Amino acid sequence: MTVIITGGAGFIGSNFIFHMLKKYPDYRIICLDKLTYAGNLSTLKSVMDNKNFRFVKADICDRETVCKLFEEERPDVVVNFAAESHVDRSIENPDVFLQTNIMGTSVLMDACRKYGITRYHQVSTDEVYGDLPLDRPDLFFTEETPIHTSSPYSASKASADLLVMAYHRTYGLSVTISRCSNNYGPYHFPEKLIPLIIANALNDKPLPVYGKGENIRDWLYVEDHCKAIDLIIHNGRVGEVYNIGGHNEMKNIDIVKLICRELNKPESLITYVADRKGHDMRYAIDPTKIHNELGWLPETKFADGIKKTIKWYLENREWWEEIISGEYRNYYERTYGNLNCYT
Ligand code: NAD
Ligand code: DAU
Hints:
The chain is of the alpha/beta class and 343 residues long. It has a single domain, classed as NAD(P)-binding Rossmann-like Domain (Rossmann fold). Helices cover 42% and strands 16% of the residues. The protein has 12 helices and 13 strands. The chain has helices at residues 11-23, 63-73, 87-92, 95-115, 152-171, 193-202, 222-235, 252-263, 288-294, 302-315, 317-325, 331-336; strands at 2-6, 28-33, 53-57, 77-80, 119-125, 175-180, 183-184, 207-210, 216-218, 220-221, 240-244, 249-251, 270-273. A 7-stranded parallel beta sheet has the order 3-2-1-4-5-6-11, sandwiched between helices. Strands 7-10 form a two-stranded parallel sheet. Helix 5 (152-171) links the parallel strand 5 (119-125) and strand 6. Helix 2 (63-73) runs parallel beside helix 4 and helix 6 (193-202) runs parallel beside helix 8 (252-263). Residues 85-87, 125-127, 181-182, 192-193, 196, 208-210, 215, 217, 252, 276, 283 line the site of 2'deoxy-thymidine-5'-diphospho-alpha-D-glucose.
């Protein structure tokens, strides 16, 4: 089995590559990643010498290059993690979100049509459902919840989902989509809430909380997300959407306070800042479908997962300090030069 994993130098994609190489030592795994500001090749250094792994630096929007790779590798499965993923950046500049998240998805699916695959899997997000009100804790997102997006990021992801379903119906492409809640864990880029708060707290810097910090997210340990995608690509029904979530809703402010306690840092570091424009109030996933059909359940409790995550950031300071300093951008050139580089 040959699997192309796009966006594998980012947070969830890299964790998925580790999961796949460990669980399926006979699979050939190819990571296609543009190495944008969010891609960090040093994340993958432990697998770069694995004979069943290949890294290719390329843009999913580059049709010629994507087709060249498909021609060479003839993948059975494609799992698309590649995306611009940060909501705040999408509010500042939507353009690249539309390009990568929508056009890139169509380029990948065109290559899948041309060369034939057994499965194209789109890694989507619960943000396509918009948000839920704080005073209705009885409401959850199911796969039938209408698409109702708030940010340019979520609109671009929703557009991609619609395209994926259109390719299934029109061309018969064998697709699945997963819509997951907020992930946390190792290799999370320190512009996102949990790693940003950990890094700032460790450096005794202010901890920025948007608005009143009352927004709720449904946090899932990244390995549980990877296991869910593994189940979907192997056993999920073609043409189906699967929601993935931890039933673990928390207010932002409670997470920030918890991290302060774990690191023994004063809450006086917490700084309330201007709210995000269009800020979604609450996300909450109903994962009944993936549980009933594929037997998936989250395995890591938040209390354990956050401890493991904080420990990882303490033990891997170099990884996030290089990101904060900008030095990580030179890692590829320094270590690999033009090796395996299509651009
Ligand atoms: P990330 O920002 O950490 O990583 C994205 C990766 O994609 C990077 O390695 C980047 O270099 C690569 N990339 C970006 N544009 C590219 C392009 N044009 N061509 C090739 N590679 C490109 O993102 P993440 O948090 O790991 O999220 C991965 C996927 O999961 C995204 O599709 C995101 O929408 C989705 N998702 C994320 C979460 C979350 O909590 N982080 C939750 C649900 C779904
Ligand atoms: O729900 C899935 C989504 O989760 C993914 O699709 C996105 O790719 C991923 O980035 C994440 O989006 P969020 O916007 O929920 O994540 P973020 O870490 O940016 O913010 C989490 C919450 O914390 C949100 O309510 C905004 C708030 N926040 C964020 C930052 C960066 C703060 O209060 N302060 C901050 O500095």
